[in-house]
Amino acid sequence: MTRLSKYYRQPGSVLLPVCLAILMSIFSLSNISCAAQSINPDKPHHAGNGFRNLHLEEDHDFFQFLRWRWERLWKDIPSGNSYAFPLAEHDPAFLRSNRDKTTLTWIGHATLLLQINGVNILTDPQFSERASPVQWTGPKRVVPPGIDLEALPHIDIVIISHDHYDSLDTNTVKKLRSRTAGDKTSFFVPLGLKDWFQRKGINNVIEMDWWDEYQVDGLSIVATPMQHWGKRSPFVRNEHLWASWVIIDDGFRFYFGGDSGYSPHFQETGKRLGPFDLAALPIGAYEPRWFMKNHHINPEEAVQAHKDLRSKKSVAMHWGTFMLTDEPLDEPPVKLKAALLEQGVSEETFLILKHGETIVLDY
């Protein structure tokens, strides 16, 4: 553990996304939810039968997606087998017994375990082999979870940023529910997703809109804006809201950035709820920029978001776990260090953790 005070060429085919889209459409027949019931026409991010971004006028269509997949065929992208990310030595027994220390553990991708005042919080839990509606195809995990799901302490709270398969995994959600006392785990989700959980037999769900606040276990949980999109089936888009999350305890403020493009929402959240003691910010899945920029920040933008949020420290996430985009999986930390140097931010304030690494927070 680290104490803060001290301191492909992947085979590709245009047919693959088409086939996956067909498969997803089959799954979606039983996955249609009723987000329209939550729509409030007086709110600017509510639109029609779904939701929209406030600072994004144009978005990509399916043909641009096919263009990206076609161009990817001719790129020399390292395969998943070319990486050997080391796992951190971790102490699950300490995490299970911990009741008084504030800790953060990066399990992988956007999955983190936050422990604060004896409350265990899990973000975007993804423990499956693939980030996909099926486990025989789709983006495959390059690094195993830093801590096995079975080794985790009891999870009091789960927060979900959006409905994509790398952040909302059906198998993982079901396993969390089936654990001992799993029926007592509370799931905090953006608007439109409660119905999805209820169909999985999970009723302890708190559905929230941007800037809604909820008090639980002595904590204040706030859903905040992010710039992204929702799509769990090929024929319905943005029926579920997307959200970053803020968790507030006396003397400690944590920001979970989810998966987001860069927009003024970082600065707005920093002004309204900051400064933050710790932020978890995505740094990966950003190439090619012409296609990914609207919805995925790159390392340079992550540093700017860190400054916008007025965060004392940040932790990098959403990198090095699944091959989702075109940049090499080990490139984001290199570019992050360069961006920190260029923008005059100390590396000690924006940490790059190993999978499974735990930091103990002093504040």
Question: Can you characterise this structure?
Answer:
The structure is a single chain. The strands form three sheets. The protein has an eight-stranded mixed beta sheet with strand order 1-17-4-5-6-7-8-9. Strands 10-11-12-13-14-15-16 form a seven-stranded mixed beta sheet, covered by helices on one side. It has a two-stranded antiparallel ribbon with strand order 2-3. Mean pLDDT is 89; it is low at 2-34. The protein has nine helices and 17 strands. A hairpin with a 2-residue loop joins strand 12 (244-249) and strand 13. It is α/β, with parallel strands linked by helices. The protein has a single domain, classed as 4-Layer Sandwich (Metallo-beta-lactamase, Chain A).
Supply the key terms:
17 strands; 363 residues; 21% strand; Metallo-beta-lactamase, Chain A; 9 helices; disordered N terminus; alpha/beta; eight-stranded mixed β-sheet
